[in-house]
Amino acid sequence: MGSFVLVVRLVLADVRRHRAQAAMLLLAVTVATATMALGLSLRGVSEALYEQTRAATAGPDVVALSGDTGPAVTSALASLADDPEVIAHHGPYRIVYADLTTHGSGRSPAVASGVVVHGFAETPGTVNRPLVTSGGWVRPGGAVVERGFAEALGIGVGDRVTIAGRSYLVVGIAVTAATSIYPWAAQIGPYGGPSDSSGLVWLTRSDARTLAGRDLPVTTAMDLKLRDPAAAEAFVEAFSDAHRDPAARVNLHTWQFMATQDTVILRNSQPILVVGSWLLGFLAVTGVAALAAGRAVEQTRRAGLLKAVGATPGLIATVLVTEYLALALVGDAVGLAIARLTVPGIASPTASRIGDAAGPGGATVAAATVLAVTVAVLSTLRPALRAMRTATVTALAAAAHQPRHRPLLTALSALLPTPLLLGLRLTARRPGRAVLQACSTATTVIATVALLTVYSQKERGYGLNGSSVLPNLRGELDRRLMLAVTILLIALAVVNTVTLTWTTAMEARANMAVARTLGATPGQIAAGLSAAQVLPALLGAMAGVPLGIGVCGLFSARNTIMPPVSWMLAAALVTLLVTAAFTALPARLAARRPVARALSAEAA
Amino acid sequence: MQDAVLAMLAKEPSYGYHLRARLRRALGPLGESMNQGQIYVTLARLEKAGFVVCERSDGLPDRADRKVYALTPAGQRRVAAWLAEVGWPKPDLAEFHLKLVAAAAARLADPVELVAAQRRELLRRLREVQQAALAEPEGSAAVLLEGVMLRLRADLRWLAACERAWSSGDAGGATTVGATAGDEDGDEDGDENDEVEGG
Amino acid sequence: MNGSDAVPNPVAGPVAGPVAEIRGLVKEHGQGQGRVRAVDDVDLEVPRGQTLAVMGPSGCGKSTLLHLLGGLERPTRGEVWLAGRRVDTLSERALARLRRRSVGFVFQAFHLMEELTAAENVELPVLLAGRSPREARRRASLLLERVGLAARARHLPSRLSGGQRQRVAIARALANEPPIVLADEPTGNLDTAATLDVLRIFEDLRTAGQTLVIVTHDERVAATADRLVSMRDGMFVDDTRLTGSSSRGLGGLIEWES
């Protein structure tokens, strides 16, 4: 108990003394865990939303879609309805493939899109009762627009739309679980062919019939309720085996299939977020490790003090690790909360589903926590081990850790101009820090390459014939997420660079002051400090381009268009320039310190 | 110096010039000023007092530099007594101190000026000894030079204390400057030496 | 200033007149009420080849004076001339360039770069001055030989004793043959034997005609100089030539009572 109090007291005192470091660890872990939790929750949330929509709209267990009309189809569908497994059905109903044009208003311009028109009864039946979210249900001449579609078109109740040349008043907005989300409402094309992006509109049966009379492609569909909804797959298989009549081909979509289809829109989002969270976690480790390394001497001395008063190595390790662990767990909790709040917006980019997202699942919480703990342990492992291993007396007398002599780099640097000479020697002095800087830069470049890749994809719009009047929601989502992840990564990398430069500058201040007494100008010192970061950053940027291409290749479809190499090289170059710019400020500040004071401080 | 000369003879009987060479070797640069005459005057006095006997070498003219000197039993006793003795030269600071007091009282001179002049003199001496010491190889003479330097440095520190006391303008303080002030000064300066110049 | 790679004679510089000169120099630290005059209206001329010691109690401003002389600090008022150039008006950059060739510093705390060997430490200023690595190596080995550390050229400072480190630092200060060497309490961290080693080097420099300014409060160190300036409260209180024989000479130090 006593040692518990001691640990808590020591941890609190240390956090209070090093607020910036604590804040940075907290921030880094929060960002990383939030991103990871978001990535891992997407699929589950998407499925949960489908389930809720299905419950609210009496969603069918199986939807039978026939690419054709005619007696053969009608009898096939009738035999389905008579199947003993089927306890209720809705339809058959007409699906008409048409074009829809909005009239446009001040806010939203006129747009054209493919549309599938479902002819429904004016009073909904027991299966597939679309939930009206605003306005009312269909009536003659009045159309109800699916919510995801309406949102994309920018229309609401009271607007007019033209379908296949006929004008309809929008009388309601509704959602259904019987089709995939916008823009995949068609599910199959006419005659069983492929379908274009299209939205869903409900009309009365007679209006749909009238529409179908204008030589538009028409298919038939029927919604089925099964005795055992969980056995939908088995039912479909049994039916497919029994009915192999090519004249009356009927496609059966189970509700599970449709739920999975919803996540197609998230196909790229998940890797963006999960890989992004790894990279963010990695940057968090580098940043915090840099800060921790800057405090290693102090930590070692602290450990020596504790040992001197009789603390066991175990207790010392506990104190050191607890601080980081506690902060990381707080960051984890905050990150999970953020993920919980933002996940519905990301998991459901169209408005075709209703419901609330539940919190991240157990597996997600566990994964995010593992990430947080890993960050904490990796950041603190080295100082903790060193503090534990160092003998008490040595630890108490700990001076700044003795840099090793690196003859090769030193000899090499002698050939270079002064700033590079100083920079290379600073790099040689702290090779670990150089590695951190290189990793940090490589991560930034990887993210930038991924961002460029995402942005160079040719997206087919959701408008008529791929027109981008209606934007490709999946592409938009990918770009937005990639941009957000990249911004977070760059922000952490910038913090890392500034931290690393400042730590280096602080540790090297005596040496730099001596260099100034030997005649190095403040400009050369500042340039040297910058060079100490930019040199490893150069290696990192060079490694980052192929690594970025590799990561993108790992997670993207085969037909992915890679951005031009010149873009990627330009990105690496810009990253370097930005790194140089961000090192310049702390370097200049450090170089401006009066020499005499730096030297006296060292002597004291 | 008589005792030292006697003690040098304790090893073996010796010629006067030989004795002088040994003394000069032991004293190093400090012995350079010692001339031939001084050693013979001392030896003559010791002979007269019965501590030393003089044996003339046969067949040689009666010259001082041809005499071999040896200890008598009385001389040997005196050497033994000298070695057992723990007397130590007393640093005579009182005279300079009184010089300052008198100068101040009669307004003959500024005591601070006197101290400064004395300090310059001691520093010059220190410089000479230092240069000799740096040129001297390690050995008995170097140890002697080291001792002389340490004494000079102690005196310089005492002078610094005198300067502080007299420049404060406190006449009463002048009378208290004595042995105690010298002691304190030593400690103070020691502390100062450990301090880091703040710049 | 001296562009050739040849080793110039430290005595014969490019400029005649004093190597260092200060006029009406004032340096104040702090602001408002807490304002302190570290150096209070001081004039000084250091002729070529002179060894000058500055003595005084802690905080008398002697280190500040040295920093001002070497251009490490800027004066509040007054002029500082070094090797014939006025330095208090120079930009930091120009000052640094001047320091490279014209000033060598020796510090109490040695201030060697821990990750560089003795030789590499000495090479550093030569490289900073833009000379070839070959030339830097040549000078480093010459200078380490001169301070008696040729055998330890490849040692890291952590493996050298305090006295050896200071000798490396002196070698480094001499690396560019500066017209003036400034030493701030060079023996402050050293024991007697190491102090003697350093003093031997200073004596050697003095006889070679190197201009040298030493700030110290060790009388022994001051006694190696040709001239001693005493400072108190930022002002000079005494200026003594130590050359020339004392009134009695060395032998006079022994009382000969026959």
Automatic annotation (TrEMBL), chain A:
Family: Belongs to the ABC-4 integral membrane protein family.
Membrane topology per record: Multi-pass membrane protein
Spans through the membrane: 20-42, 168-185, 272-294, 315-338, 358-381, 434-455, 481-505, 525-555, 567-585
Keyword list, A-Z: Cell membrane, Membrane, Transmembrane, Transmembrane helix
Residues annotated as domain MacB-like periplasmic core: 26-240
ABC3 transporter permease C-terminal domain boundaries: 277-390, 485-594
Organism: Microbispora amethystogenes
Cited InterPro entries: ABC3_permease_C, MacB_PCD, Macrolide_Exporter_MacB
Keyword Coiled coil carried by entry: no
Protein name as it appears in the record: ABC transporter permease
Compartments where located: Cell membrane
Pfam families: FtsX, MacB_PCD
TrEMBL record, chain B:
Gene3D superfamilies the record matches: Winged helix-like DNA-binding domain superfamily/Winged helix DNA-binding domain
Positions in coiled-coil regions: none
Boundaries of every Transcription regulator PadR N-terminal domain copy: 5-80
UniProt superkingdom: Bacteria
Bias (Acidic residues) ranges: 182-199
Region (Disordered) residue spans: 168-199
UniProt cross-references to PANTHER family, sorted A to Z: TRANSCRIPTION REGULATOR, PADR-LIKE FAMILY, TRANSCRIPTIONAL REGULATOR YQJI
Name of the protein: Transcription regulator PadR N-terminal domain-containing protein
Organism of origin: Microbispora amethystogenes
TrEMBL record, chain C:
Domain ABC transporter: 20-258
Keywords, in A-Z order: ATP-binding, Nucleotide-binding, Transport
SUPFAM superfamilies: P-loop containing nucleoside triphosphate hydrolases
Gene3D superfamilies per record: P-loop containing nucleotide triphosphate hydrolases
Residue ranges of coiled coil: none
Signal peptide: none
GO molecular function: ATP binding
Any Pfam family: ABC_tran
SMART domains linked: AAA
Transmembrane stretches, start-end: none
Xref: PANTHER family: IMPORT ATP-BINDING PROTEIN
Name of this protein: ABC transporter ATP-binding protein
Organism: Microbispora amethystogenes
UniProt lineage: Bacteria, Bacillati, Actinomycetota, Actinomycetes, Streptosporangiales
